[in-house]
């Protein structure tokens, strides 16, 4: 039994792409370093702390790779290994590296500002010393990416008694963490997860490039797709207004047709030729997004086929040496 577990662990390690292996090592090293310096009262020099992170700006980078809890370290390392392997094979090393650098760093900037806003509202000085760290932002980003790539796949739990589609997992996570935040079970972790979801969605929706296609403007990955349809009439004008603000601030690019690219094509304003041009432009964007998703799935299948063939080839090569 133990031998079988060791073999599986070894196989998982050697089948993991190099960038993900490096990330696992980075989390291990930084978590140990945080444990050591924390004993001398210097833990805040590696994690995001509202009163200390502006002069120590490197903490916005290091905080996302530090786990301070033993069980959270073990669980998140396993999730990072398998999810990281999936996306490194699906996206390629370059795009995967960009994602894992951008999402945690920006997420911890946002977490920092949310902590300050909370302090400004409550004027509770304990909020200024709350330390934020962990893989929560990146792993939430992976969950958003799973919704983008395989939205209709089902995750079965309890021996298949419960089946949840991948596209619903981000919403379930956000609802659960919001509830836990309201009843005071979690605190800073809520900000981290919220920031991770927002950052990863904006990056994947508007910026990530694959096969010459920038972003994913499909309705299946729209902002409103994260919420029940009954809430769409309420959320649509809010999301339209936020999008207009973000365009003016140059946080996201303009869709070019005056319509919010976070909902359906029916949101286009104007009429006549302008409306027709907008609909045509949005249709092209949706077609490009669907093509991008198909290419991603094709690349993933190819990478997984190569990965599964590697252990078999190694085993066949090693057999003559044993005789």
UniProtKB/TrEMBL annotation:
<dbReference type="GO" id="GO:0006890">
    <property type="term" value="P:retrograde vesicle-mediated transport, Golgi to endoplasmic reticulum"/>
</dbReference>
<dbReference type="GO" id="GO:0005794">
    <property type="term" value="C:Golgi apparatus"/>
</dbReference>
<protein>
    <recommendedName>
        <fullName>EOG090X06Q3</fullName>
    </recommendedName>
</protein>
<feature type="transmembrane region" description="Helical">
    <location>
        <begin position="68"/>
        <end position="87"/>
    </location>
</feature>
<dbReference type="InterPro" id="IPR013861">
    <property type="entry name" value="TMEM115/Pdh1/Rbl19"/>
</dbReference>
<feature type="region of interest" description="Disordered">
    <location>
        <begin position="260"/>
        <end position="281"/>
    </location>
</feature>
<feature type="transmembrane region" description="Helical">
    <location>
        <begin position="189"/>
        <end position="207"/>
    </location>
</feature>
<dbReference type="InterPro" id="IPR035952">
    <property type="entry name" value="Rhomboid-like_sf"/>
</dbReference>
<feature type="transmembrane region" description="Helical">
    <location>
        <begin position="99"/>
        <end position="121"/>
    </location>
</feature>
<keyword id="KW-1133">Transmembrane helix</keyword>
<feature type="transmembrane region" description="Helical">
    <location>
        <begin position="21"/>
        <end position="42"/>
    </location>
</feature>
<feature type="compositionally biased region" description="Gly residues">
    <location>
        <begin position="267"/>
        <end position="279"/>
    </location>
</feature>
<dbReference type="GO" id="GO:0016020">
    <property type="term" value="C:membrane"/>
</dbReference>
<keyword id="KW-0812">Transmembrane</keyword>
<dbReference type="Pfam" id="PF08551">
    <property type="entry name" value="DUF1751"/>
</dbReference>
<feature type="region of interest" description="Disordered">
    <location>
        <begin position="304"/>
        <end position="323"/>
    </location>
</feature>
<keyword id="KW-0472">Membrane</keyword>
């Amino acid at each position: 039994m133990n031998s079988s577990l060791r073999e599986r662990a070894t196989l998982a390690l050697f089948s993991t792409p190099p960038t993900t292996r490096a990330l696992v090592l980075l989390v291990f090293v930084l978590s140990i370093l945080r444990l050591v310096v924390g004993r001398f009262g210097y833990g805040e020099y590696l994690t995001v702390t509202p009163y200390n992170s502006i002069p120590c700006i490197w903490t916005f980078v290091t905080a996302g790779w530090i786990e301070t809890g033993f069980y959270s370290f073990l669980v998140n390392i396993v999730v990072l290994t398998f999810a990281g392997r999936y996306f490194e094979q699906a996206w390629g090393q370059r795009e995967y590296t960009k994602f894992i650098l951008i999402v945690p760093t920006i997420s911890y900037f946002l977490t920092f500002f949310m902590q300050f806003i909370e302090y400004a509202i409550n004027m509770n000085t304990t909020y200024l010393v709350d330390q934020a760290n962990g893989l929560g932002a990146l792993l939430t980003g992976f969950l958003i990416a799973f919704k983008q790539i395989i939205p209709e796949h089902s995750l079965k739990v309890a021996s298949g008694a419960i089946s949840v589609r991948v596209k619903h997992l981000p919403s379930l996570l956000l609802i659960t963490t919001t509830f836990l935040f309201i009843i005071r079970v979690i605190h800073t972790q809520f900000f981290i997860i919220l920031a991770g979801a927002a950052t990863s969605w904006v990056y994947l929706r508007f910026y990530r490039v694959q096969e010459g296609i920038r972003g994913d403007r499909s309705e299946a990955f729209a902002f409103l797709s994260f919420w029940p349809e009954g809430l769409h009439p309420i959320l649509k004008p809010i999301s339209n207004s936020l999008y207009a603000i973000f365009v003016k601030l140059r946080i996201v690019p303009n869709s070019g047709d005056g319509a919010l690219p976070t909902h359906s094509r029916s949101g286009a304003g104007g009429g006549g030729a302008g409306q027709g041009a907008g609909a045509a432009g949005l249709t092209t964007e949706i077609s490009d997004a669907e093509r991008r998703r198909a290419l991603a799935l094709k690349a993933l299948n190819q990478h997984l086929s190569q990965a599964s063939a590697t252990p078999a080839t190694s085993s066949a090569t090693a057999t003559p040496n044993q005789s």
